[in-house]
């Protein structure tokens, strides 16, 4: 499908910009959530929010409308692209429980040049959304990953926060059409669950894109950029763990008190494996399928499964120790990590030790960063 007409770019900024840092932004009028790249500046706009990079070159905007405003996503796109001359390609997809949506890659003239970017039109029952992320054409390639990352940070409500963003859903749907049985060893037997290989590929694509975004924040990266990186990974991965989490719950007896420690012992039996890519992070669902991964892949998979089973936990990462661990909100003796007013029992995924044990040469609390994956 081709677009031959364009849009009126730019939602006016109505309030002083605030620098986003530390947590996703929840719109107090419409309830949608955005978690743009660290340091981008957000301002309320007439219809939603307007976000710009620190140099005010690239822009990400969300506009929301009452659900009865448009009859379909196609109608939204046609109405939106009716005022200016532009060209682009449009493809349909169905995110968020089957809502109608289209994704457009478009370039259009503005005063002083041409801009290019991505536009998503989502037609829902209670609200319709237009997402825009664009930059001047001459720097488009430089900002490309940031534009996709910004759009992928959107969720229409808290109910959809732990779910792939629009770009992820466009690339490959959750619970894809080619789910097959996977068998992995578990406690002397076999655990079987369903997984579509295409979902593994989609998860790894997002991880590598977010690693390229993270690279812009230095080595080691800023703390909040690092936290956002892991939040983006977990959002995309979370629903991919539904089936394996349900099967593990059945096997371990639902709410049994020893679930975190039994699950930890299972992960400690995984082979240690690195990807060698820029991210050096295996998609957590792939780590479970392969029964292999490195410290942060295993810690993320462990925490995602625990969250599915009703347990609260955080990720611990350290640039000093070049290591990652989990910490879980359960009683028990041993080392506990203080975070947000509470303490969490540490869990080492890559060594056969009980919960609460941490290597003495990695025990300086100040060298660890806590990451709330489920804000």
From TrEMBL:
- Which residues are the signal sequence here? 1-26
List UniProt keywords, sorted A-Z.
Signal
The protein's name in its UniProt record? Transglutaminase domain-containing protein
Protein species of origin: Winmispira thermophila (strain ATCC 700085 / DSM 6578 / Z-1203)
